[in-house]
Amino acid sequence: MSEDRPQPDQIDGAPHPRDTARLIGQDAAERAFLGAVGSGRLHHGWMIAGPRGVGKATLAWRIARHLIANPPEADGGLFGAPPPPTSLDLDPEHPVARRIHAGSEPGLFRLIRPWDDKLKRLKSEITVDEVRKLKSRFALSAADGGWRVVIVDAMDEMNTAAANALLKLLEDPPARSTLLLVTHQPSSLLPTIRSRCRMLRLSPLTTPDMAEALTQAGIETAPEEADALAALSSGSVGDAIRLSLNDGPKLYAAILSLLGTLPRLDRARALALAEAATTRGDEDKVNTIFSLLDLALIRLARAGATGQPPLPAAAPHEAEIFARLAPTPQSARRWAEIGQEISARSRHGRAVNLDPAALILDTMIKLQKTAADMAA
C-alpha cells in the first residue's frame, strides 16, 4: 500500500481507523459482539451499520485484531480455559497489533475502492476483480491455520457484480473466517447479504463523547467549538473532523450572521463569505460552505415547524435569528422548500464548475428575496 495515495477509508488529517486507540461512545455494539463470542455463537458475517463517521471502521479493526490474536476454538465454542473476553482492547505491542499497524498481517484482508494507475485516482466503486483477488488470497492463506478476517469498507461502494461475488463467500464461507461489512445504508444492500449477517448498529455520538473522540484524533477545540461541532456534525466524529479542519464553526457563524441581516442583506458580509470560496484548489472549503448553508436552512425550517430552537446551538444568537425568520409552521415550510431548491441549484452549479463565489452570492440574493417576500 502506497502511503502517499489517498485512502478511501481514512479522513484527511485524521488517524486511520486501524490506528485509532479506542472506540468512543459505542459500548453497546462492542458488548453485543463480545457476548456473541463468549457464548460460542460467532457468526461468519457481521454487518456494522450506522451513520458515516461514528466509528464503524474503528470497530471493525478492533474486532479484527481481537479475533486474529485470540482465535475462537475451531468448533466455534468458548475460548477454552480463559474466561470469555470483556474487552476488544489489545496491547499495541502485541505481535498481531504490530503486524496490523504495519500492514503485514497475513490473516487480515482489506476490501476497499482500488487505485486506478491509469487515471491516478481512486476508482469510484469496489469492483468484482477485488473480490476475486480476495478469494485467491483466502486460498493461499488456508494452510497457516490461523483465523482470517475481511474488512469491507464500505459495502455501499460495491457495484452489483462485486456484491454478488461477495454473497457467494457469505453463502459458503471459508473455514475459520469472519467477514466484517461496514455500511452506511444497510437498507440499500442486497436482502440476501443482509440476511446472512448479524447486525451491529452504531449510534451518533453525544456531545461529551464527541469532545473525547476529537481529542483522541488530535483535534484540539475550545468547549464552545466542541458544542458547535457536535451540533453541526449530527454526532458524526468523521464529519466533525472535516468541519474542524475547514473552519466549519466559524463559517457557520458567518452564515448565521448573514441570515440575521435578512431581509436587508449585508452585501459586505456576503462578499466576504464568497471570497472565502475563491481559493484555487480548496474544494473542501467550498463544499463545506454549501453543506453548512444547506444545514442552516434545515435547522431554520425545523425550528419554525416545532417552535423550538435546535439544541445544542451551533452559533451565537441562532435561536433568536431562527425565531424571527420562521415564526410559524407556514414560514418554516417555505424555508424548507427554498432550502431544497437552493441545494439543487448549488449541486448543479458545482457540477458544471460555475464560479463558487458567484454561486454563493446568487444563493444569498435568493435568500434575501425569500425573506423579503415573507416579510411583506
Question: Your description of this structure?
Answer:
The strands form 2 sheets. The protein has a 5-stranded parallel β-sheet with strand order 2-5-6-1-7, sandwiched between helices. β3 and β4 (121-122) form a beta hairpin. It has helices at residues 27-38, 56-69, 95-102, 128-141, 160-171, 191-195, 207-216, 223-233, 237-245, 248-259, 267-275, 283-306, 318-325, 329-351, 356-375; strands at 45-49, 108-111, 115-116, 121-122, 148-153, 177-183, 198-201. By secondary structure, the chain is of the alpha/beta class. The chain has 15 helices and 7 strands. 40% of the residues are buried. α7 packs across α8 and α12 (283-306) packs antiparallel against α14. It has 2 domains: 17-201, P-loop containing nucleotide triphosphate hydrolases (Rossmann fold, 3-Layer(aba) Sandwich), CATH 3.40.50.300; 246-375.
In one word, what is the shape? elongated
Report helical residue fraction. Answer: 40-55%
Query: What is the second-level CATH architecture of the largest domain?
Result: 3-Layer(aba) Sandwich
Q: Rg, please?
A: 24 Å
CATH topology of the largest domain: Rossmann fold
CATH top level of the largest domain is: Alpha Beta
**Percent of residues in β-strands:** 5-15%
Spatial sequence of strands, sheet with the most strands: 2-5-6-1-7
CATH H-level superfamily of the largest domain: P-loop containing nucleotide triphosphate hydrolases
The helix-strand sequence is HEHHEEEHEHEHEHHHHHHHHH
Largest sheet: 5 strands, parallel
Distance from N terminus to C terminus (CA atoms, Å) equals: 61 Å
**Chain oligomer state:** single chain
Low-confidence stretches: 74-81
Number of beta-strand segments: 7
Number of helices: 15
The overall pLDDT, averaged over residues, is: 90
